[in-house]
């Protein structure tokens, strides 16, 4: 099988690219593509790896015929049309812990640069000057730092600022008093109350309706004279025009910004101020963060292409490890059963019932339903189904899905049975190494691991039928590798499940239909 192809559109650490190649994926790095070039290129690729600059619009997603995974080598995924990806069953995942320390350190770097005029002094020295009196700074020690957003990065900033001897105050309605206490932050439940207290303000907030424009003229006016403001989160949280006004008036002492409304940012009202310390979205640009982001993203992209669970998928709920341990090995088994059902019935069922038994009886079965639908609908290419869009695909195709659980797996440790419009199939998994075994089909009890090609016969039970099947297949050069015969004595019916090797074509099938007397059904299954 040809290797799956990954398109990388931004600079990702070599370790990340290597990690993709180590997993057998073909990797193409194409930097600085225009949106039109991306739309023209994407149809060839199974996965896309981006950072913050690549816009993955609905147009890109609709052009992406084969795309299964979009991996963001970083935290925030604000450049991908998540709804469009979800509708197409494309997993969107990120590397949410890769750059937290780097972002916290960059925040400290900007605070120190603002407090000690580092950038201005450096520029002055490069002009051959020696201006010691011009660049008198302030210490961080014993100053009050207000942290807005005490999540992962806000918390790391608190720990670092504490080591500088700063007094920490904070605002985050979702932060527990216990966490604030542990971080040494005095929590306020009112933004207005905190504003006059801070010498330094830093925001570590997501960009949301509530946080866009959270700080404008009214808030800046209430702050201490000479306050220093930092933003390494997202642009828009501070109103930039009004920042410029308050810098011009000398009310704000300095600002340190890493994020901008339109990136790359070539024009800003802040450019005229030497005490506006600006970096081009560098918080995550460290060797360590990029290595982590690249390697983590490679792992999740490969998992998504493999059909495995992607723990950081943003458009599906990740399952906890204990649930995954129990149901994970059954996902390919359910996909296989879905595919067999599709090949036996030929029609898309209107009703699907999945029953999990034994050790599976207490776990979330949604991923097994997704696996079954994938097998069912992907066969004949009715639809590309992934765990992301399984539910919406079932609805779109009018399939009513029901799940049941039983403690009793009839002698097995665990088993899953599926009924699609009355056609029944069940399997168990003795252990992962040996794969799934079918234990029931159409009510016949059997025990066989389906192979790549199988023939399934149902006929009126009578002596000699198996011999005829063997003879016809033998004459056509088709080798039987495994065979199971099972009967329903009350109905005088038998089912034979034969795994075969060799070319099964219409002639072979016609001969079998003609030669096996009493034949009720013959299905040719390919997995
Ligand atoms: N410049 C860069 O390269 C990077 C920027 N970031 C940005 O840093 C920011 C913070 O990231 P994390 O700490 O990982 O996020 P997080 O989700 O761990 O923390 C965000 C915190 O904000 C709080 N919050 C949400 N809405 C709030 C509101 N209206 N008022 C007050 N608090 C509110 C939440 O309760 C949470 O504690 C994000 O905007 C992210 O985009 C992250 C990594 C790198
Ligand atoms: O990839 C980058 O450098 C941007 C990092 C960032 O902003 C994020 O991870 O949210």
Explain the overall architecture.
It contains 18 helices and 22 strands. Helix content is 33%, strand content 24%. The longest helix has 20 residues, at 287-306. It has helices spanning 14-22, 35-41, 58-63, 82-87, 100-116, 118-126, 152-163, 177-183, 191-194, 217-222, 240-248, 287-306, 321-327, 330-345, 366-378, 390-396, 465-475, 506-515; strands spanning 5-8, 26-29, 47-50, 69-72, 91-94, 144-148, 167-171, 185-188, 200-203, 227-231, 252-257, 276-278, 351-358, 400-406, 414-420, 423-429, 436-441, 444-448, 453-460, 479-488, 493-501, 519-526. It folds into 4 domains: 5-98 and 288-306, 3-Layer(aba) Sandwich (Rossmann fold), CATH 3.40.50.720; 100-278, NAD(P)-binding Rossmann-like Domain (Rossmann fold); 319-441, 60s Ribosomal Protein L30, Chain: A; 451-527, Alpha-Beta Plaits, CATH 3.30.70.260. Helix 4 (82-87) links the parallel strand 4 and strand 5. The chain is elongated, with a radius of gyration of 31 Å. The chain is an alpha/beta fold and 527 residues long. Helix 17 runs antiparallel to helix 18 (506-515). The strands form 4 sheets. The protein has a 7-stranded parallel sheet. The protein has a 6-stranded mixed sheet with strand order 14-13-15-16-17-18, with helices on one face. It has a 5-stranded parallel sheet with strand order 2-1-3-4-5. It binds 1,4-dihydronicotinamide adenine dinucleotide (NAI) and 2-oxoglutaric acid. 1,4-dihydronicotinamide adenine dinucleotide (NAI) binds next to helix 5 and helix 7.
């Amino acid at each position: 099988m040809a290797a799956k192809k990954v398109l990388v559109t931004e600079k990702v650490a070599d370790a990340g690219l290597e990690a993709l190649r180590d997993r057998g994926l073909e990797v193409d790095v194409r930097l600085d593509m225009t949106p039109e070039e991306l739309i023209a290129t994407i149809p060839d690729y199974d996965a896309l790896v981006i950072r913050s600059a690549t816009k993955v619009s609905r147009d890109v997603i609709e052009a992406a015929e084969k795309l299964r995974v979009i991996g963001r080598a970083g935290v925030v995924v604000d450049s991908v049309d998540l709804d469009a990806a979800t509708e197409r069953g494309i997993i969107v995942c990120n590397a949410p812990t890769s750059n937290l320390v780097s972002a916290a350190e960059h925040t400290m770097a900007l605070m120190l640069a603002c407090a000690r005029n580092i950038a201005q002094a450096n520029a002055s020295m490069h002009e051959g000057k020696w201006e010691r009196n011009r660049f008198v700074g302030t210490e961080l020690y014993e100053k009050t730092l207000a942290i807005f957003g005490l999540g992962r990065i806000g918390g790391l900033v608190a720990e670092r600022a504490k080591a500088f001897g700063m007094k920490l105050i904070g605002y985050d309605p979702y932060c527990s008093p216990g966490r604030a206490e542990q971080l040494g932050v005095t929590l306020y439940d009112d933004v207005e109350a905190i504003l006059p207290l801070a010498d330094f303000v830093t925001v570590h907030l997501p960009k949301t309706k509530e946080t866009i424009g959270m700080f404008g003229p009214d808030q800046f006016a209430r702050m201490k004279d000479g306050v220093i403001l930092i933003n390494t989160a997202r642009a828009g949280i501070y109103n930039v025009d009004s920042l410029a006004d308050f810098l011009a008036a000398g009310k704000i002492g300095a600002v340190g910004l890493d994020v901008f409304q339109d990136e790359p940012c070539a024009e800003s009202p802040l450019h005229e101020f030497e005490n506006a310390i600006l970096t081009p979205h560098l918080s995550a640009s460290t060797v360590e963060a990029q290595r982590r982001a690249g390697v983590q993203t490679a792992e999740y992209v490969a998992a998504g292409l493999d059909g495995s669970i992607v723990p950081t998928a943003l458009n599906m709920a990740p399952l906890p490890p204990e649930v995954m341990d129990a149901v994970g090995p059954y996902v390919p088994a359910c996909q296989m059963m879905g595919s067999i059902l599709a090949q036996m019935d030929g029609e898309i069922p209107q009703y699907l019932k999945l029953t999990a038994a034994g050790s599976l009886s207490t776990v979330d079965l949604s991923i097994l339903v997704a696996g079954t639908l994938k097998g069912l609908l992907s066969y004949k290419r009715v639809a590309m189904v992934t765990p992301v869009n399984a539910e919406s695909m079932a609805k779109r195709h009018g399939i009513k899905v029901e799940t049941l659980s039983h403690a009793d797996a009839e002698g097995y440790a665990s088993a899953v049975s599926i009924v699609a419009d009355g056609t029944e199939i069940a399997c168990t998994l003795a252990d992962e190494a040996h794969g799934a075994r079918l234990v029931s089909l159409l009510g016949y009890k059997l025990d066989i691991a389906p192979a790549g090609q199988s023939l399934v016969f149902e006929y009126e039970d009578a002596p000699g039928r198996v011999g005829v099947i063997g003879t016809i297949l033998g004459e056509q050069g088709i080798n039987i590798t495994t065979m199971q015969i099972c009967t329903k004595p009350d109905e005088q019916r038998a089912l034979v499940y034969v795994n075969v090797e060799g070319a099964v074509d219409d002639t072979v099938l016609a001969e079998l239909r003609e030669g096996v007397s009493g034949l009720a059904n013959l299905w040719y299954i390919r997995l």
